[in-house]
Specification:
Length: about 100
């Protein structure tokens, strides 16, 4: 699952190191290749909500984490991506 991290705009040199340390501490494999000091946002892939919570619960420089349901360069692209994500989520449910 994709998650959007909202990072603080302070201590830019420490944000990546903090995330790497917290991931290592919690045994979470996370790819931070898309990280940049130029943006307060970072998209990461995690196994689920439990990993997301563990990654940021002790973070100082992470303001919030959100499940990313979709993304796009236009409103139409975003709507299509979100609809696709919701269809996938519903198909994973064990409904009678």
């Amino acid at each position: 699952m994709k998650y959007l991290l909202h990072l603080a705009q302070t201590q830019l040199d420490f944000r990546r190191a903090e995330l790497q340390s917290l991931a290592s501490l919690n045994g979470i494999c996370v790819n931070l290749d898309r990280y940049t000091d130029q943006s307060p946002f970072l998209v990461v892939e995690l196994e689920g909500e439990i990993q997301a919570k563990r990654l940021v619960e002790r973070a100082i420089l992470c303001k919030a984490i959100y499940e990313l349901l979709g993304q796009g360069t236009s409103k139409k692209d975003l709507h299509k991506d979100v609809a696709k994500s919701l269809i996938l989520c519903v198909s994973c449910l064990d409904l009678p």
